[in-house]
Q: What sequence folds into this?
């Protein structure tokens, strides 16, 4: 375990577990978008951020792109931080 900046422990887990936790954080954030109440939306965001911090998982900024009739969500810097901002 390592110490986080806010005096919480950062738990070290294997890569598979880290991936599962990252997916859970993403699902919590997606659920927050469905909340009608602003406070509920904020609370779920705080829960996802706190969970990520405890396991050393950095938040990923997502951008929304319109492709015809579809909306695509992707990480701002590409899947492997390799986007060259070709827009």
A:
């Amino acid at each position: 375990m390592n110490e986080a900046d806010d005096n919480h422990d950062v738990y070290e887990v294997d890569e598979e577990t880290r991936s599962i936790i990252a997916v859970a954080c993403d699902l919590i954030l997606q659920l927050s978008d469905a909340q009608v109440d602003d406070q509920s939306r904020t609370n779920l965001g705080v829960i996802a951020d706190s969970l990520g911090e405890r396991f050393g998982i950095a938040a990923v900024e997502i951008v929304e792109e319109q492709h015809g009739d579809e909306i695509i969500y992707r990480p701002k810097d590409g899947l492997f931080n390799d986007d060259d901002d070709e827009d």
User: Anything to note?
Assistant: The radius of gyration is 15 Å. Strands lie at 2-3, 9-10, 62-67, 70-75.
